[in-house]
Amino acid sequence: MAKKAKPNAAPEGEAVEGEKPAGRKKLVIIVAAVLLLGGGGGWFVMRKPAPDQNAAAAKKPVAFLDVADMVVNLASEPNQDRPRFLKLKVALEMKDAKIVGDVQPLLPRVQDIFQVFVRELRASDLEGSGGIHRLREELLRRVNLAVFPSKIDAVLFKEVIVQ
């Protein structure tokens, strides 16, 4: 006997409404996987800088300029009997040695800005690495204002003593 076709079944090769062919679903998954893996591999290749870029960055010299040593008395804490002092040795880092000539005549202004700011600090403001980091960031901001249009890239501490 011949089997009768089900009334809901579509003829061979056609999908029933609402159903996707299984082959198409597999194809979408395979294409997505290839794109993800290929894209990830491409990201690793693109992420690695060219050797020429590293060589150019390494050859560019950095310049440093020392600021005169400072000894400042800090603002007193509540219920503090004796004065507290801060000794600070700072160097300024610049990307280009040509900037040193522009910044050198402005060092008295830089020292003044540093002195005025540091005298308002308390010893508790300098506690821990967070306090020193905040001090560095604030000094960098102030020195860049003082030497504008030149740019200082970093304030480096050579010595920080709170007594």
Written overview of the protein:
The chain has 163 residues and is an alpha+beta fold. Helices cover 45% and strands 18% of the residues. The chain contains five helices and three strands. The radius of gyration is 34 Å and the shape is elongated. It starts with 21 loop residues before the first helix and ends with a strand. The model has no long low-confidence stretch (mean pLDDT 82).
List the SSEs and their pairings.
Layout lengths: L21 H26 L3 H9 L3 E11 L11 E10 L3 H6 L3 H13 L8 H19 L7 E9 L1
Antiparallel strand pairs: 1-2, 2-3
Helix pairs in contact: 4-5
- Based on helices, strands and strand pairing, what is the structural class? alpha+beta
SS field, number of helical segments: 5
Shape: elongated
The percentage helix is: 40-55%
| Average residue pLDDT | 82
**Terminal Cα separation, in Å?**
106 Å
Got a strand count?
Answer: 3
Estimate what percentage of residues fall within beta strands: 15-25%
H and E order: HHEEHHHE
The largest sheet is: 3 strands, antiparallel
What low-confidence regions span 5 or more consecutive residues with pLDDT below 50?
none
